[in-house]
Amino acid sequence: ILNVEQSPQSLHVQEGDSTNFTCSFPSSNFYALHWYRWETAKSPEALFVMTLNGDEKKKGRISATLNTKEGYSYLYIKGSQPEDSATYLCAPNFGNEKLTFGTGTRLTIIP
Amino acid sequence: GAVVSQHPSWVICKSGTSVKIECRSLDFQATTMFWYRQFPKQSLMLMATSNEGSKATYEQGVEKDKFLINHASLTLSTLTVTSAHPEDSSFYICSARYEKLFFGSGTQLSVL
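ok -> structure tokens follow
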């Protein structure tokens, strides 16, 4: 069983503040790392797919970095807004289509 | 973007009955769909890979006779939980690939 860990499990952030959280995963046989945003009662929405060591991706106020050698990725949110409240999931895959999900970081933005 | 529709959103059934969950790709064709299960406070766990026109591939520990998967068309995969028991109560969610993975909104199953 592949161990994918996300920390923290939950996070409360004041509106306007920036925040970040971590995904760690086994570095051997790594192929790609996926980040998803999952709002309550909705479908998980793909944010980023990252493959190369040192990759940085950005979408609006959200960005992510990847370190494949040490097996971790950071997700950053700048200037948090209430609509950023969601669970953020990371999921590496290791050379096939199967994704191994972490338990997620539940982010709550306090107005 | 591509849309995956999953129904029902929630279902309550009696122990021993069977429950069918549908997963449809609305605006694209999906030769492969994936079924996941999530227990409270745990991660999404892949149950099986559904392949159009052929048998599903089940992950280790998932009973294929218990969780019947049918992928009869390029836009529809169904998961049937047969003879459901309280321990099958869980959140089930499907996904399909169209350049990237798109997910349904999930089904909360409660077995009494």
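The mean pLDDT of chain A is 95.
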